[in-house]
Amino acid sequence: MLLVRIHRAASRLLYFWKLASQLNNRSRIGLTILIVFMAAVDISLAQDVGYNRPKTIHRPPRLPVGRQERGQSRARPVTGAIQNPYDTKSYMSRLSEKLSPEQRDLLLRGPDIKKSDALTYGLRGPLSRPGISAEPKKFQVPPPVKLGAEKPWSLGQDLEKYRAYAVKEGSRYFAGNVRKAGLHAGLAGQDLVNIFTLASSERGKPLRENDGKPISFHLLKVEEAGGETLDNILYTLYSSADLITLDSLLDLENEAYQNNHPIVRPFVYTGRSIASACKTVESAANVPTFGYFDNVAGSASMFFENTVETAKHGCQAVTNLPRGCIYVIVGKNANLDKIQDWIWLVPLEYLSNVIEMKGLSNTQDYKNAFTQKGVIGSLLEIGGSTYIAYQAVDEMFGELKDDNGKRPPTEGTPAAQAPPTAPPAEGAGIEAPASNIFHFDGFTLAVSGR
Q1: What digits encode the pLDDT tens for the residues 160-184?
Q2: Is 234 inside any structural domain?
Q3: 249, 303 in Cβ contact below 8 A?
Q4: pLDDT digits (tens, 9 = 90+) for 262-318
Q5: Which candidate, 310, 363, 340, places its Cα nearest to that of 47?
Q6: Residue 352 above 70 pLDDT?
């Protein structure tokens, strides 16, 4: 089955490979980077996939010794237990002697009681115990519990969220960093194999959902992604105009527009525009390849992401070595740990998230991103990922213009070098006034009179 899938996709992929082989080396590298970049955006936006993270093994809890399968204790004979001298009937009779006639009737009737009778007998008549009102009680819904007003936003608390997020994703200890680096290195190896086998492993199963679908299916995906891209671009322009005019325009009936501050809205919609544009290009590439393009691009993106994660944890393992020395000298201190987190963990976490296009995924699930990373950290990731996207697209279009001859030759290229000039003939002079011409042995010297 695997060979059949590879043969079906090989004909289409080979055609595009021949087109790419006609480009120069820099254009090929730029095209590869752009494909991986678009796939990275798609992978980072997938909220319900588990193939881009190490899987956590959940083991069932071990039952204590002497417990049954359901965790209940085994019945054992108990000696010396105190026996109840009354049976059920005699106990109810002795209890009814202390109640009023109405309550005694209610007690002895048992399951035959009706709801109306319960309200009648149980809520009327004086009770024998003092301090209890005889007025009928009313069934009321308890008022909702107020948890208190939310704390106002503060810069320090917002930055603290990103520091805690960096600690959770990384580790403060050398052994933890080495373990996570090994996990991501193993995943990168699997993804590298998936590039050449069209995501045939279990990790690539979500990438194979579009394989072999008809062209009409992929054209519909292109239409949907293109419409979403156009909407996000219009939202970006409107939110930017609203920010420039100091929030004087009418608010749009959009959840992301109403839930975010006017300063945050342009960032959110800019990231969504880039993400949806990449999704449109990927969907368009799936049309001629019958859905096999995202198999290769997605596997390459997953390989790239896990490689970056491996490098991040490896660097954190090295930078955490001074932390251990400080523990030995000073001891553990909460405030000192936070300072070291900002020095050793936060910069590497930010750079890895920006390179992996996590900033664009923040715009899709902004509520979760702002809760975990804070507003400032999420916006910085959005800005970094947007800058990388701009540089990648600009470099790619520049290389394509060079191939088509539309860009003027730059300095250092053969076309930019001036053709060599022929040396002047021996004895040739320069036209000048006769008074400024001096003759020497074998050559003529002309001096300007100006």
Answers
A1: 999 999 999 999 999 999 999 999 9
A2: yes
A3: no
A4: 999 999 999 999 999 999 999 999 999 888 998 999 999 999 999 999 999 999 999
A5: 363
A6: yes
Expressed as residue numbers, the domain containing 205 is: 2-48+155-404
The C-alpha atoms of residue 298 and residue 304 are separated, in whole angstroms, by: 10
Q: Give CA separation, 443 vs 198, 258, 425, 436, in Å.
A: 76, 85, 10, 14
Q: For the chain, give the percent of residues with pLDDT over 70.
A: 57
Q: How many CA atoms lie within 13 A of 376 on its CB side?
A: 11
**Rounded average pLDDT over 349-358:** 94
Number of H helices, E strands in the chain: 17, 2
pLDDT at 379 over 90: yes
199: Cβ contacts below 8 Å, ≥ 6 apart: 205, 207, 208, 295, 296, 298, 299
380 within some domain: yes
| Dihedral sign, Cα of residue 397, residue 401, residue 402, residue 407 | negative
Q: Are 159 and 377 in contact (CB under 8 A)?
A: yes
The answer to the question of residue 57 being in a domain is no
At residue 409, the 3 state secondary structure works out as: coil
Residue 420: left (phi > 0), alpha (psi -120 to 50), or beta? beta
CB 103 within 8 A of CB 122: yes
- Terminal CA-to-CA distance of the chain, rounded, Å? 87
- Total number of domains in the chain: 1
Burial class (CB in 10 A: 0-12, 13-18, 19+), 313: buried
SS3 67: strand
What mean pLDDT, rounded, does the chain reach?
A: 75
Q: Is residue 125 assigned to a domain?
A: no
Instruction: Enter the pTM of the model.
Output: 0.63
Torsion of CA 252, 255, 261, 263, to 10 degrees: -70
